[in-house]
Write a structure and sequence with these properties.
The protein is an alpha/beta fold and about 400 residues long. Helices cover about 40% and strands about 20% of the residues. The structure holds pyridoxal-5'-phosphate (PLP).
Length: about 400
């Protein structure tokens, strides 16, 4: 008997509200559903499928590892984890890496490390966490409370203490909050879920300087902005502002679950044996895939391609907007792009998503007023043209 969307309502916890169709197959930037209908994928699994679907290098790495060694726990280390750690260290500011399975876990590790190091160095009072309003850092209870969107953290009982919030991109507001009791500051260089809002360069640099001044660790959450999405391997490299701790996930695994926390040797030393861990962290299958992901992405051709494709998307969206004016702004970096709905179409992003899917193109929203694009970093010209043409049909239908 064929499975249908109704099975979701019957068997699954209702915390998601998936689309009516069920995707069954993908290739590059195309996906097909149970009925054989084809979609161009500009959603990329919410900025995850960095190399599209079933990229040969990733399929090769996964199947090779699947025939070799699946799991040994952290009682032992393994070669794919060591290779991936070395690649991440070679490509970034970091000296040390901690592996986990998701973005939330990478941030959980980052926040725990920052507090631990701050408390050990300066005393118990140095535990304040500063975060931006509208930020999103994951759904574990600590990370969801650190995230600046109370709608996600309310209703679960008492929250951890010592977290304060300020308006993103507002350096004066940040200056008013940071003090010598601040353990860390966590920021997305480009707010993703909060509406695809890039940081102002002067703001990021100002935050960096104030963190240094107050001995507070600067954590960049690059779960969504990282692994090539900005046009640099990590967005901090695009801005030239270096964090103390960085979290990665999503695009790192290209669709295979993995997260990573990167930091310096000086900070890493506070997470001594036994202070933190996770069973699947550094899983050989995940690390083998991520090793192949970074090999493909961290090349001048792919990273330069992200910038070229950014321009193609932005031009295409502006061209649609010239015919059907629904957007007031197109913003973002690289292949993380947000198109903001005008006043006249407030709160209607979800409707556009649905009509776009009916027309054979998958896009995302980032809040109720922003259409978000997070396609494969190697989406090709034909896929971009076809997808944008389908989006234009969808928008025409939407405004009709
Ligand atoms: C910036 C950012 N941080 C953290 C997360 C959480 O990642 P995960 O869902 O893998 O736990 C997300 C997911 O959307 C994200 O965009």
């Amino acid at each position: 008997m064929a499975l249908t969307r109704a099975a979701f309502d019957q068997y699954m916890v209702p915390n998601y509200a998936p689309a009516a169709f069920i995707p069954v197959r993908g290739e590059a930037s195309r996906v097909w559903d149970q009925s054989g209908k084809e979609y161009i994928d500009f959603a990329g699994g919410i900025a995850v499928n960095s190399l599209g679907h079933c990229h040969p290098a990733l399929v090769g790495a996964l199947t090779k590892q699947a025939n070799q060694l699946w799991h040994v726990s952290n009682v032992f280390t393994n070669e794919p984890a060591l290779e991936l750690a070395q690649k991440l260290v070679d490509a970034t500011f970091a000296d040390k890496v901690f592996f986990c399975n998701s973005g939330a876990e990478a941030n959980e590790a980052a926040l725990k490390l920052a507090r631990r190091a701050a408390i050990e160095r300066f005393g118990e009072q140095k535990n304040k966490v500063i975060s931006a309003l509208s930020s999103f850092h994951g759904r574990t209870f600590f990370t969801v409370c650190v995230g600046g969107q109370p709608k996600y953290s309310d209703g679960f009982g008492p929250k951890p203490a010592g977290i304060e919030y300020f308006e993103y991109n507002n350096l004066e507001a940040f200056k008013a909050l940071i003090d010598d009791d601040t353990a860390c500051v966590i920021l997305e260089p480009i707010q993703g879920e909060g509406g695809v809002v890039p940081a102002d360069a002067a703001f990021l640099q100002g935050v960096r300087d104030l963190c240094t001044q107050h001995n507070a660790y600067l954590i960049f959450d690059e779960v969504q902005s990282g692994m090539g999405r900005s046009g640099s391997l990590f967005a901090y490299q695009e801005y030239g502002v270096v964090p103390d701790i960085l979290s990665s996930a999503k695009s790192l695994g290209g669709g295979f679950p993995i997260g990573a926390m990167l930091t310096t040797a000086e900070i890493a030393k506070y997470l001594v044996a036994g202070t933190h861990g996770t069973t699947y962290g550094g899983n050989p299958l995940a690390c083998a895939v991520a090793g192949a992901v970074i090999d493909v992405i961290n090349t001048p051709e792919v990273l330069a391609g992200v910038k070229t494709k950014h321009a193609q998307f932005v031009d295409g969206i502006h061209a649609i907007n010239a015919k059907y004016p629904v957007f007031s702004q197109v913003r973002g970096l690289g292949l993380l792009i947000g198109a903001v709905l005008t006043e006249a179409y407030q709160d209607r992003a979800k409707e556009i998503l649905n009509i776009a899917a009916q027309n054979g193109v998958m896009v995302l929203m980032a809040g109720p007023n922003v259409i978000r694009f997070a396609p494969s970093l190697v989406v090709n010209d034909e896929e971009i043209t076809t997808g944008l043409a389908r989006l234009e049909m969808a928008i025409a239908q939407f405004v009709a």
